[in-house]
Design a protein that fits this description.
By secondary structure, this protein is an alpha/beta fold. About 40% of the residues lie in helices and about 20% in strands. It has an 8-stranded mixed sheet with strand order 4-3-2-5-1-6-7-8, sandwiched between helices. Strands 12-13-17-14-15-16 form a 6-stranded mixed sheet. A hairpin with a 2-residue loop joins strand 3 and strand 4. It is globular.
């Protein structure tokens, strides 16, 4: 029998389960237990939240690598290749690694139906054990309590932020969403919350399971000037901890603040130099990503109002000599009105583009949802069409913001690669 390549395996995994999402831990836990995957590393750090998960995982991993730890990271979705989802010390693994893990999982599951994401989660745990990582840093895909990643017992759990997203699955009530995300907290283990004044349901859950809870603005915080920032929080021994003159990260500062609180509880020493070097080397493609050629632009995968608000704050802090354009393409189950509302004061002309696929929509459909609330708007069939027109329209003093989804940024990357 001819062995499947990685693309064939991924197509097969997509066909295994009739639903893309099937929240619940029983099936995936059963297979993970059978394969002895429930303890993927001596130290496990988990991050959930509406926004900021990817930045948090990246910052944690970068700092821990500087502290001479062998770090495995699991994140989703990917921008270009599936291999981006699992990295060891920041390096993607080979197709052969993933194929080996998929073969083992497919054999072990027998007649248990697993979703694409559930197999991907088991694959990451398999590979962390194979390569004997010191620390596994796991991004929770959807919600928290019932997400496949939550089969693993985390030693430190982080909820980055709480907002409305994935409402078909999590509901439109912040208290319910906060409870779902708090489901990653563990009894008697450090529970960190990067949301200021979180809903009481998160606090109550931490109290119920006796997890020591550390909330931004209450237990840890920061001050910032134009060139650096300082952090103050709770140390691993329960006393006060402070860090001064830290470099401003390329990733959102609010996530770095939360990361530093979580890292107070690791069972080994992290020096100030490790933290500084880790912050400086932490970069994530598609998150507040700046490019200078063939025009000035910022690429961001943000696809909800909370992410747009963060992006807007970055724009307000930087002046542009010329005009500021936006290219927006979003999946049909997102909230374009909320995103546009956060950014409209910073944008002089909007370009809308379509996205293909079963969750995609045309630029005209997107424009109709926005109900003509944009002052200047141009519709395009594809992201590449919009970028072709913008290349001709923009001058050296202008800036472009590309946002709306992972698909949008991935298409922009493909177009950019052809320009060089």
């Amino acid at each position: 029998m001819t062995q499947k390549n990685l693309d064939q395996w991924l197509q097969y995994l997509e066909s295994l389960h009739p639903s893309e999402i099937d929240l619940g831990l029983a099936r995936v836990f059963q297979v993970a237990k059978k394969m002895a995957l429930l303890k993927p590393a001596p130290l496990v750090i988990m991050a959930a939240g509406t926004n900021g998960k990817g930045s948090t995982v990246t910052l944690v991993s970068s700092i821990l690598q500087q502290a001479n730890q062998k770090v495995g990271t699991y994140m989703s979705p990917h921008l270009h290749t599936y291999n981006e989802r699992v990295k060891i010390d920041g390096v993607m693994l080979s197709d052969e690694d993933f194929i080996e893990s998929f073969e083992a999982i497919d054999k072990a599951r027998e007649d248990v139906l697993l979703t694409y994401f559930e197999v991907g989660t088991l694959s990451s745990l398999y590979l962390f054990i194979k390569y004997q990582v010191d620390v596994a840093v796991l991004e929770v895909g959807l919600g928290g309590r019932l997400d496949a990643v939550n089969i693993v017992d985390a030693d430190i759990s982080i909820v980055t932020s709480i907002g409305l997203d994935h409402q078909d699955w999590l509901g439109d009530d912040l208290s319910k969403i906060a409870f779902e995300k708090a489901g990653i907290y563990r009894p008697l283990k450090p529970a960190v919350c990067g949301e200021r004044n979180p809903p009481q349901t998160l606090i109550n859950h931490a109290l119920d399971i006796k997890a020591p809870l550390f909330i931004k603005g209450e237990h840890f915080n920061y001050t910032q000037n134009s060139k650096s920032w300082s952090w103050k929080g709770v140390g691993g021994n329960g006393g006060c901890a402070e860090l001064q003159d830290l470099p401003l990260p390329s990733l959102p500062l609010e996530n770095a603040v939360t990361v530093l609180q979580a890292l107070q509880f690791v069972p080994f020493k992290i020096s100030l130099k490790n933290i500084v070097d880790g912050i400086n080397s932490a970069h994530l493609s598609g998150r507040l990503e700046r490019i200078e050629s063939p025009f000035k632009a910022i690429l961001d995968v943000g696809h909800n109002p909370q992410a747009a608000k963060l992006l807007s704050s970055r724009l307000e802090g930087s002046e542009v000599k010329g005009r500021r354009f936006a290219l927006l393409a979003m999946l049909k189950d997102k909230d374009p009105e909320g995103v546009v509302k956060e950014l409209t004061d910073n944008i002089s002309h909007w370009h809308l583009a379509g996205i293909d696929g079963y969750r995609g929509q045309t630029s005209q459909e997107l424009a109709e949802k926005l109900n003509n609330q944009l002052p200047m708007v141009t519709c395009h069939e594809q992201v590449s069409d919009a970028l072709d027109d913008l290349l001709a329209e923009m001058n050296i003093d202008d800036e472009l913001i590309v946002l709306g989804s992972f698909v949008t940024v991935a298409k922009a990357h493909e177009w950019l690669a052809k320009q060089n």
